[in-house]
Amino acid sequence: xxxxxxxxxxxxxxxxxxASGDRIAFVxxxxxxxxxxxxxxxxxxxxxDRVVVSLFVNPAQFGPEEDYDAYPRTWEADRxxxxxxxVDVLLAPTVEAVYPDxxxxxxxxxxxxxxxxxxxTRPGFFTGVATVVTKLLCAVQPDVAVFGRKDYQQLVTxxxxxxxxxxxxxxxxxxxxxxxxxxxxxSRNNYLDAAQRRTAAGxxxxxxxxIRSGDSPDAxxxxxxxxxxxxxxxxxxxxxxxxxxxxxxxxxxGPRVLLAAAHVGGTRLIDNLEFGPEAGDx
Length: 282
What we know:
The chain has helices spanning 7-19, 35-47, 75-84, 95-98, 125-140, 152-164, 194-200, 202-211, 217-230; strands at 2-4, 24-29, 50-55, 89-91, 144-148, 170-174, 234-242, 256-264, 267-275. By secondary structure, it is of the alpha/beta class.
């Protein structure tokens, strides 16, 4: 595994691979890797001949109430996991390498799909995500990039920016990886104590019950709020949108996704459940 710190080193590492006609698959991460991340790496291995993974904690997507400096950085463990997984190139750039003229000098904004849901309580988050993903895709120039479906609004945002910026990369959405009790794997699960961890599993159960309890988007969302509360979590939002593009819907006659955020103690969790005809194809 080649480790590179600058975009110039990245181009040098990828040059021979491109010359050989290798299909390059890319997985961007902020590190602190867990089984969900590694599932993305596995999918990238299936999608390409060579796999590039980035480890970069992006300051542009942290809000004023979120502590960028406190974000867990587990470099040694992450490097060993990626080496064992057969990753070809590990891109671990500095902030200066990604933002040569400073954070905020150039930004990428995506409209509509970045409104509401998680954006309501995390202003600026999706602009930070869109900006760094655009920069990384331009630097790596992969044939395919793999993202998780747990961050559904993020996935839709990235697909829209790729389509509208005419970037020649296929965006693959990998299935959510769950623990045995249904809890979506997330770095934030590490913040939960034993009792909170048991409570957190109720979020997925709440979504499952909600889609069985309503015959309209509003009824499903209302049921989700009730079930999340009944399972001991504090709901932040629960909404039904159209699968694939997050458009507002008035019926359940098509691919739909129920998205929710909830709090357990001081930990914020997100999850979603795709349902209806052609669910998961978006």
